[in-house]
Design goal:
- The complex is a heterodimer of chains A (about 290) and B (about 400).
- Chain A has a two-stranded antiparallel ribbon with strand order 1-2.
- Chain A is globular.
- With about 290 residues, chain A is mainly α.
- The longest helix of chain A is centred in the N-terminal third of the chain and has 32 residues.
- Chain B has about 400 residues and is α/β, with parallel strands linked by helices.
- In chain B, about 45% of the residues lie in helices and about 15% in strands.
- Chain B contains 16 helices and 14 strands.
- A 7-stranded mixed beta sheet of chain B has the order 7-6-8-9-10-13-14, sandwiched between helices. In chain B, strands 2-1-3-4-5 form a 5-stranded parallel beta sheet, sandwiched between helices.
- Chain B is globular, with a radius of gyration of 23 Å.
- The chains are: A mainly alpha (about 290), B alpha/beta (about 400).
- The interface between A and B is large, with 48 and 41 residues.
Chain lengths: ~290, ~400
């Protein structure tokens, strides 16, 4: 029984890590630009499809996997920067509603674009050959690939924390969360900062998509489930908080994994129960409004 | 329209449009004999079932092309009008209504998702249009929603669940279930459970898992299924969900620890390729490799040549569905819906999967379903089913009494 719980816990953690990678981008964009970026899930989906194409070219080798992990997020980052520069920047002083509508429109455009390029059928990317087996955890098999996912999540979290706590960019970013006008008055090029943050957020969505591609299936619609869960992470963690997002993603992953053991019929609801609890008890999120 | 100001210009436009329509339709009436027979196809080209709809449209087009090349029906060509219902029942109903009222289509061929199938069947009943369904299979269609213009050549949810119980129930005593949390899988486990008590009273369904449709991560469910230690897992996952489940379950060793039986579509086999484990028990609707006949071989060749992809279950049923509709129109005394429905009911159709007839009580075609284990099949670019077993409709479909009882209950 204890081993069952441990294995369940580990699978919850690996799920939480993918969620964290994607949601950290969303929370950065939400915290700094104040844009509820609805198309974040589309960036994730785009990256997953790009991963499919890249690995298909390489024939499912380790090299193809590494190439996809590097190239796909970069492609998505460029796309994200273009979205911010050509669209969102033009309406940055309008109400949130307009930004919401534009990002929502992008989700539709990306979905149709993917349908045009890749067609409507679902796809599958194989695990890289070096990670397709499993390890033994207390005598139970645990997928090697998930170890990579957990490691990648921790590395990304550490890097983001380092950037925010230890670099000038991070300090400017933290300041922009609190008072963007003052930051602008102090001589920081705020529009460029916004493009950079949006691009970084897009890269994180892309990295999450590339990382998740071998685990599931790649189909139109994978943007929906990830965007809902990512917003839940942002709300539970507190907008703009990387540490909060990390904690929230872990909580969601673990609560869902352990919840299934207790009450499988309620599995779908756990994430929303957690969401309601946070909104009622601590509406600013677990870790306030700090970056 | 009433809100628009009427200017001289719009009046002129309207008048010329009216004249043009009159001119265009006048010769049409005179040539009614030679005018095309319009077939309406509302299907889900967008959404999680889009792949199935695409194959259906392809196959229906192929059948129509062949019928037209052979001179059409009663000297008239067939014309296909396709609409995208996007997996939305309300949209499916309104598009179908529009096809009937505005486009004046003569007959309907089936949609994709069962929920849309229910909506389309309702519209067909209302406007007295014959509809042949080739993908939807909720038992409600042949049950309480049945009407005389409705025909289906899809093994119904009841038939599939019973066939699965026959296939795996006899030799396994503890069965764990996993299925997407929506109507069809709740029906599946209910009918499966009912049949199981007949097949093997000792057998029990020991665990049930209900992930949501489109669940990206099945690992918590997988570890739970493993710790339940069943003799076999019965899965009602399909499409993208099944692919994600299989890929995630493999490194956990689920397939080494327990037997696994699942609903399986050819599209899933295609997408998974070599990642599909061997030895999984798959239940399929109408796989082309399930029937070894010259007609099927010819169909596979034609379909591949035209669409550059291997035909799926949906293509097989779409192609047969269109030819059944065509035969019905050809055999009917008139073009009226009642005459065509009567002709289809009497039809002895020579289908890709063998002879096919409809029974009067629910217009269910006596179509087979298939059970087999996954493995390499010669001549197939992806894995297929080996040791394939053909389950005739007659052994699993509900008796007419059961159907009538089902209708009375509602």
């Amino acid at each position: 029984m204890t081993i069952d719980i441990l294995i369940q816990l580990l699978s919850g953690v690996s799920r939480g890590m993918i969620l964290f990678v994607v949601a950290s981008g969303l929370t950065l964009i939400f915290g700094v630009l104040r844009i509820p970026n609805f198309c974040h899930g589309s960036l994730y989906m785009l990256s997953a499809f790009a991963t499919y194409s890249i690995t298909t070219v390489f024939g499912g080798s380790n090299l193809g996997f590494l190439a996809s992990l590097i190239v796909a997020p970069l492609v998505v980052m460029a796309f994200g920067a273009a979205i911010e520069f050509f669209l969102l920047r033009r309406i940055s002083n309008r109400e949130h509603l307009y930004q919401l509508i534009v990002t929502f429109a992008i989700t539709l455009i990306v979905a149709d674009g993917i349908k045009l390029i890749w067609g409507g059928s679902y796809r599958s990317v194989s695990y890289p050959p070096m990670l397709e087996g499993s390890l033994s955890v207390l005598g139970r098999p645990f997928p090697q690939y998930y170890v990579l996912v957990i490691a990648a999540g921790i590395v990304i979290a550490a890097l983001l924390a380092l950037i925010i706590e230890r670099t000038r960019f991070g300090r400017v970013l933290s300041a922009a969360v609190i008072d963007p006008e003052m930051v602008g008055a102090l001589g920081v090029n705020v529009p460029r900062l916004y493009t950079t943050v949006f691009a970084l957020g897009a890269w994180l969505a892309g990295f999450g998509g590339a990382l998740a591609a071998p685990i599931g299936s790649i189909s139109l619609g994978i943007d929906n489930s990830i965007i809902i869960e990512s917003f839940a992470v942002v709300i539970i963690g507190g907008s703009g908080s990387i540490v909060g997002a990390f904690a929230a993603a872990l909580i969601i992953g673990i609560v869902q994994a352990l919840g299934i053991m207790v009450a499988p019929r309620l599995a779908i609801g756990f994430i929303f129960i957690a969401l309601c609890a946070v909104l009622l008890l601590r509406p600013q999120g677990l870790l306030g409004r700090r970056v | 329209m009433s809100g628009l100001p009427i200017t001289r210009r719009t009046m002129a436009l309207a008048t010329s449009a009216a004249i043009a329509t009159a001119l265009a339709s006048a010769p049409g009436k005179a040539l009614a004999e030679g005018a095309p027979i319009k077939i309406g196809l509302t299907t889900d080209l967008t959404g999680i079932a889009a792949t199935y709809a695409a194959a259906q449209v392809n196959a229906v087009k192929l059948a129509i092309e062949e019928i037209n090349a052979a001179g059409g029906i009663k000297g008239r060509k067939l014309e296909l009008l396709v609409r995208d219902s996007q997996l939305k029942p309300a949209l499916g109903a309104s598009l179908t209504r529009d096809l009937i009222v505005r486009e004046k289509i003569d007959y309907l061929i089936g949609p994709d998702a069962s929920s849309v199938g229910v909506a389309v069947s309702g519209v067909a009943k209302q406007y007295k249009k014959v509809v042949v369904m080739t993908i939807p299979n909720t038992p409600r269609l042949v049950g309480e929603l049945f009407h005389k213009y409705f025909f289906t050549i899809v093994p119904s949810g009841t038939m599939l669940a019973r066939a699965m119980a026959e296939g795996i129930g006899k030799t396994n005593n503890s069965i764990a279930f996993i299925g997407g949390d929506y109507e069809a899988s709740h029906q599946a486990i209910q009918y499966f459970g009912e049949w199981l008590t007949k097949v093997n009273p000792k057998a029990k369904i020991t665990a049930q898992q209900w992930p949501k449709l489109g669940e990206p991560d099945f690992t918590p469910y997988i570890t739970q299924l493993i710790s339940a230690k069943p003799d076999i897992v019965f899965s009602y996952l399909w499409g993208a969900d099944l692919i994600a489940f299989i890929k995630q379950a493999k490194p956990y060793g689920l397939f080494d620890k327990t037997k696994f039986a699942t609903l399986l579509f050819l599209d899933d086999l295609k997408a998974l390729g070599d990642d599909m484990p061997d030895g999984i028990i798959g239940q399929m609707y109408a796989p082309p490799f399930g029937t070894n006949s010259p007609a099927m071989a010819e169909f596979i060749k034609k379909y591949q040549a035209k669409f550059n992809s291997f035909p799926s279950d949906w293509a097989v049923m779409g192609y047969d569905g269109m030819r059944i509709l065509a035969d019905g129109i050809r055999n009917a005394a008139s073009m009226e819906s009642d005459a065509v429905a009567e002709a289809i009911e009497k039809l002895k159709f020579d289908g890709l999967q063998g002879p096919l007839t409809f029974r009067a009580v629910d217009h269910q075609g006596n179509v087979p379903s298939f059970l087999g284990t996954t493995g390499k099949v010669a001549g197939l670019p992806f894995k297929g089913l080996v040791d394939i077993q053909r389950i005739p409709a007659e052994s699993v479909w509900p008796t007419p009494e059961e159907i009538l009882a089902q209708r009375k209950d509602k």
